[in-house]
C-alpha cells in the first residue's frame, strides 16, 4: 500500500502541521452481537436483576444495538444523543450508570457525576474524532492562537474538553458559535472538519478548523445520494452535519440525531433517505412505524470506513458485555479529578446555554 493511501482522515493543510494521522489499521472491523431470541431473553432477565440490585441504569446512544436500546427503555434507563445522555445521567438517582456508547460519553457522564460509578461495556469503544484530536498536539495548536475562543465538539477526550472554553454538540454548535460571533470572538474549532465547515457556513464566524472526521459520516457520497434521490423524488433527505458538504447540500433537514428522529416523526412525507449511522433506524422506526427509511449510500469497496454506515466502536457495545461489567464491576470510567473539574466547566457552559432551549436544533435546509 502506498503511504498516502494509509493516511485516511487527517489532512491538516489549513493547520500547517500534521500532528496525527489516523491509519486504516486503527479502525476496527464492525462486529455486531449475534444472539438467539432465547439467549436474549435469558441475558436481559439477568441484567434486569443486576440493575435493580445495584441501583443502576443503562444510558445508551441511538447508534447502539437495538436490543440494548430496548433494554434501556424497559428498565428506566435512557436512549438519546450525547448531550441528553449526559443530562439524564446527571438527573438520575441511580448510583451506577452503565453508559453504552463510546469512551467520551462515559467520561462526560463521570465528569458530571464524580460521585457515581460509571461503567462501560467496552473500554476500547472509541471514536475517530476523539482519536484524531490528541491533547498534546491540540493544546500546542491552541497555544499558537491565544486570541481565539476554543470550541470543541462533544466527541473529544476529557483532557481536550479541559483545554477548551466551550463544548458543543451537533444540535447546539450553530447557536453557540453564532452567540460567540456576536460577542466579536474568533474561534478555534475541533475536531470535526465537516461540522466545522457547516457551522462556519451557517454563522459566518472566523474559525480555524481542526481536520478530524467521523469514519461513518465521511463515507456518505454526494453523487450516489443524488442518484438515489432521483429514484425516490418523494423522499425527504435527512443528513447529520458530520457528513461532507456535497451530502449536506442535498439535505432537506440537517440536524443532530434527535432532530433527525423528530423529523421522521413530524414530517408528513412517507419516505426518508437517512445519512447517519444506521443504528438510528431503531428509534426512527419506533417513532414512526409507517414510514419508509432508506440508507444514504456509502462508497462501498473504496470506503475508508469498514463499517458501511455503522460505527465500529458503537458496535462494541453488547448485552453480553453489559452483563459482564455488572457482574464484575470491570470497565469503570475514571477521570483525573483536576481534568474533570476543568472539563466540567466547559460542559456546564453548554448545559446552561441550552437550558430552556429545544434540546436538538434542526435546521431545515
Ligand atoms: S459514529 Fe462517528 S462520531 Fe459517532 S462515535 Fe462513531 S466514529 Fe465517532
List keywords for this structure.
5-stranded mixed beta sheet; 365 residues; 41% helix; 16 helices; 4-stranded parallel beta sheet
Task: Please characterize this protein's 3D structure.
There is one protein chain. With 365 residues, the chain is of the alpha/beta class. Helix content is 41%, strand content 13%. The protein contains 16 helices and 13 strands. The chain has helices at residues 3-6, 37-53, 66-74, 82-91, 103-112, 128-131, 135-143, 158-163, 173-182, 193-203, 222-231, 245-248, 257-266, 281-287, 319-328, 337-354, and strands spanning 56-61, 78-80, 96-100, 117-119, 149-153, 166-168, 187-190, 207-209, 236-239, 253-254, 271-275, 292-295, 363-364. It is globular. The termini are far apart. Residues 63, 102, 127-129, 155, 214-216, 242, 277, 311, 313-314 line the site of iron/sulfur cluster.
In N-to-C order, the SSE pattern is: HHEHEHEHEHHEHEHEHEHEHEHEHEHHE
Uncertain spans, ≥5 residues at pLDDT below 50? 1-19, 358-365
- Output the radius of gyration: 20 Å
Q: Could you state the oligomeric state of the chains shown?
A: single chain
**Structural class, please?**
alpha/beta
Instruction: Work out the number of β strands.
Output: 13
- Spatial separation of the terminal alpha carbons: 40 Å
Largest sheet: 5 strands, mixed
Amino acid at each position: 500500500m502506498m503511504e498516502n493511501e494509509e493516511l485516511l482522515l487527517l489532512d491538516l493543510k489549513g493547520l500547517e502541521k500534521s500532528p496525527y494521522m489516523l491509519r486504516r489499521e486503527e479502525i476496527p472491523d464492525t462486529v455486531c452481537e449475534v444472539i438467539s431470541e432465547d439467549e436474549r431473553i435469558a441475558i436481559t432477565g439477568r441484567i434486569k436483576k443486576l440493575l435493580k440490585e445495584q441501583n443502576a441504569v443503562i444510558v445508551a446512544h441511538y447508534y447502539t444495538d437495538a436490543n440494548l436500546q430496548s433494554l434501556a427503555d424497559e428498565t428506566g434507563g435512557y436512549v438519546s444523543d450525547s448531550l441528553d445522555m449526559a443530562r439524564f445521567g446527571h438527573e438520575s438517582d441511580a448510583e451506577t450508570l452503565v453508559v453504552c456508547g463510546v469512551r467520551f460519553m462515559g467520561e462526560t457522564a463521570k465528569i458530571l457525576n464524580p460521585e457515581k460509578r460509571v461503567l462501560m461495556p467496552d473500554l476500547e469503544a472509541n471514536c475517530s474524532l476523539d482519536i484524531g484530536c490528541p491533547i498534546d498536539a491540540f493544546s500546542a495548536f491552541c497555544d499558537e492562537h491565544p486570541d481565539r475562543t476554543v470550541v470543541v465538539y462533544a466527541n473529544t477526550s476529557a483532557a481536550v474538553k479541559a483545554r477548551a472554553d466551550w463544548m458543543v454538540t451537533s444540535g447546539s454548535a450553530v447557536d453557540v458559535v453564532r452567540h460567540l460571533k456576536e460577542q466579536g470572538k474568533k474561534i478555534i474549532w475541533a475536531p470535526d472538519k465537516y461540522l466545522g465547515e457547516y457551522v462556519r457556513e451557517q454563522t459566518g464566524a472566523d474559525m480555524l478548523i481542526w481536520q478530524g472526521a467521523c469514519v461513518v459520516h465521511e463515507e456518505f457520497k454526494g453523487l450516489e445520494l443524488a442518484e438515489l434521490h432521483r429514484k425516490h423524488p418523494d423522499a425527504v433527505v435527512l443528513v447529520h452535519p458530520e457528513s461532507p458538504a456535497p451530502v449536506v447540500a442535498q439535505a432537506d433537514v440537517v440536524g443532530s440525531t434527535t432532530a433527525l428522529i423528530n423529523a421522521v416523526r413530524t414530517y408528513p412525507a412517507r419516505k426518508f433517505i437517512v445519512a447517519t449511522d444506521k443504528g438510528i433506524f431503531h428509534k426512527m422506526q419506533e417513532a414512526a412505524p409507517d414510514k419508509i427509511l432508506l440508507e444514504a449510500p456509502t462508497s462501498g469497496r473504496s470506503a475508508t470506513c469498514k463499517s458501511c454506515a455503522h460505527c465500529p466502536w458503537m458496535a462494541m457495545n453488547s448485552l453480553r458485555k453489559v452483563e459482564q461489567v455488572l457482574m464484575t464491576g470491570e470497565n469503570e470510567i475514571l477521570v483525573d479529578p483536576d481534568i474533570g473539574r476543568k472539563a466540567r466547566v466547559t460542559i456546564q457552559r453548554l448545559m446552561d446555554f441550552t437550558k430552556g432551549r429545544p434540546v436538538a436544533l434542526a435546521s431545515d435546509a
